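Q: I'm a student working through a structural biology exercise. My instructor gave each of us a protein and asked us to get a predicted structure, then write a short paragraph describing it. Mine is Cytochrome b5 heme-binding domain-containing protein. I'm not confident about reading structure output yet, so if you can add a plain explanation after the tokens, that would really help. Here is the sequence I was given:
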Amino acid sequence: MPPPPPRLAVPGGASGGLGVPVPAAGSSLMPPPTTTRIPTLPAKKREKVALTPGHSPLDWAMLKQSGADLRGGAEQIMRIPPSVLKQHRKRDDAWSAFNGKVYNITPYLAFHPGGEQELMRVAGRDGTKLFASTHAWVNADFMLDACLVGFLVKEPTNPDS
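A: Happy to help. First, here is the predicted structure for Cytochrome b5 heme-binding domain-containing protein. I'll explain a few features afterward.
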């Protein structure tokens, strides 16, 4: 028969649950003496709006596949500088850039689960940072692929300056 496992000797006889020794005072494993519990941040509640009938994610997927012009009449993919993007920031003509791609978000406004107002926050500008902070799990390229109008490029430099 094998000998019994050795017992851990703990200075002062202190031990935690299950025979695990408690770290000595001053050890980096213990929380600071002023800490009584782990601080928790209040959970942010995701604000959603009630979408009108016919504007669910499934309805959006069907609209994308229908062949409808969701690009707003753009016949070819364009190179779009920020100054041009900025001109498209109205509800009836809204473009936004995500990850270097510019999309006509006008047809998607009524389908956005957070409401039109939330999506209009990025109309006419690069919404990559805001999108990533609120929708890290969403693939914008797949969701808006039928709305692609071009690629975001730097402002052209004026050679006369």
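A: Here are two points you could use in your paragraph. Strands lie at 78-80, 89-90, 93-98, 101-104, 148-152. Helices lie at 57-65, 82-85, 116-120, 128-134, 140-144. It's a good idea to check both against the output above yourself.
Q: Great, thank you!
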